[in-house]
Every structure is written in C-alpha cells, then in structure tokens.
Predict the structure.
Amino acid sequence: MVNRAVKASRRSDRLRNVTIDLPNSEPRILVVRLGAMGDILRTLPAVQMLRRRFPASTIGWALDAGWQILLREQPEIDELLPLPRKQMSGVAMLPTAARYLASVRRFKADLTLDFHGNLRSGLVTFASRASHRFGYEGHQQKEGNRLFTTHRVPSGDRRCPRMERNLDLVAPLGVDSTALTVSELALPSTGRDEAGRLIHQHLNDRPFALLSPGVSVSQSYKKPPATLLAEGVRRCDSAGLKTFVVWGPGEEGDAHEVARLAGSGAILAPATSLPVLAALTEKACLFISGDTGPMHLACALGTPVVAVYGPTDPQVNQPWGLRTIAAFDPKVSYSGVKRLDRERGAYSAIDMQQLQSSFIAAIEQQIEKD
C-alpha cells in the first residue's frame, strides 16, 4: 500500500504519546469485529500482525455466530465469542444478550479493539471491562460508539481503504503496519474432500476459474449484471479456462442465469457450503465476483481476483493481496459515503461499455500472468 508508514503516523497522532500499560507480558486481547464475511476477513491481517507484536498474548474474537467457522481453525485466535444474533429477537433478546455479555466479561480482557464502530460492538467493548478499549473517532464510529472506548484513533479520509483503517487501529500498539503481507487463512478442514470430488467430477481435475455471481438479499444492489459476468466466462473459455459457477442459499437463480448466458464455458456447481467454497477457491486459478464476502475470501487465500464494482467504492473496498484487480467505470465519482455511492455508482447509472472494457481487460491480465 502506498505510503503506509506516513499514513499510519499521521492518523495515530492523538495516540503518539500514550503509554499502553498492559498488566503483563501476556495480555488478554479481545478483538470486536461483528458484521459480514468480508468485514471479518479484512480485519484478520491486522490481528495476525497484532499476534506478532504480542506473541504470548491470549487473543479472543467477538463475531456474529454465523461466521465463526471462518476462524475456528485460525492459529492466531485462542478463543471465539460468537454472538447468537438469530436468537436475539422477541422475548429472548434480553436474556440472550445478558448471557452473551457475561461471557465477554468472563474473557477478562486487558485490551479490547473495536474494529466495528457501532452501538452493538460498543456494548460488547464496554462489557469487556478492559482498562484499555480502542476504537475510532469521527465518521468511522456511529450510534454513540465513542462513548464506550477509552482510546480513539482518527477515522481518516472517507475514501481510506478499509484494510488501512484496520491497520490504523493497531498501529499505536507498536504494530509495524508497513510490513503487511497477505494473510494466511486456515481453511475449515471439512470442505477439502468434497471440493476435490467436485473438481474431479465436473472439471476432470483441470485448471479452472471460479465465479460467484450472487450476493446476499440485503446487499442485492452490489450484484453485477449477469450479461457482464457471462462475457467474462466466455473470455476465460477462449483462453482455455473453464469457469465453475458457484452459489449459496438464495443465489441459485443468479448462477443459472449466468451459466445460461455464458454457454459451454460455464459449468454450474451444486450448492456449496462455506468450507467447500473455501477449498474450491484455494484451488482455482482465478476468482471472479462483485464486491462480496467470497471475493475477500479469495484474497485471504491468495487466489488471483477480478472484482467488479458498481455501487460500492472500489478504493474503500478494494481487493487486497498480491494479484487482485478491481474493475469499475473510471468515470464514476465515488465519495466513500455508502448512501451517496449507491446512488452515484449503481450499475443502472454507470457506463456499461466502460465497465465491460475494464472488466475484460482485468480478466485477460490475470490470465496472462498464469
């Protein structure tokens, strides 16, 4: 990342002279990052660097229960504190929340790092009772989150890449953010055998591209047009690379549509679980999708990525790693403000010819590298 040392220094000015008096050389550190898959995966590199800084520490991670499988076998994480969001509704909400916050207190954190920055994460951070509770000030915190933290790092420019902002939070602890490398994600071991069977059955063990066309219902605005993704499949096919089209719950229609439009270059996969998706992604030569959690999964696994952006800022949400390319309409003016960018950068409001040109060029560049 460009000028990481300068940016980290500037954004950490308020904490430059703060002495973090942790009680011993083996501190208990609680990471708070709830939210979606991509949010968790983009926090992982900062946590891995934190482990290097405090090798004898005990690191816990508070996250939404649905994503704990991502980190269950991650060697840097000693304990997961999964938040049971699906159980927190109706009459069960208050007792479930009370039990969860009690489990956070039992972790007995010396230091808590709130990478999320909203009311929910603030309550978890405060419940930790850590003497040092790090969070953000400015636009990166909302819903009164700053009231629950003791040390606050400036949010920086609104178009600051999310990965850099995560690194800013650990920089005051002596973490050398200039030494960032691609994170190493420990795959859930349960998916490898099934992924191997699918590759053998559907692809005859040949090299392949992986395409994930769908998005969650709540983020349907991020979904790239099926015609665009189908064109990408055809370009891969012309280079001798078949594309395995994967899908999860609620995404079957998107996968079928892309496969139909793409023709013989696309091979439709059966429904895949997250462990199987991760194992397939690790084996793929190229991963293609919109700005989604599976795209960030591919980055974490070191698979070459082409990510298509329309309504989300490609600078803030840029793919990261050694071989990732963002495809977007260069004429769109992004602001880093989600609400505004959804209006200015929606696929219906951009030049599709410009986006297609960027997308195809990115695919061809990645294929040429192989």
Q: What stands out?
A: Residues 138 and 158 are 10 Å apart (CA to CA). Residues 352-369 form the longest helix (18 residues). The chain has 13 helices and twelve strands.
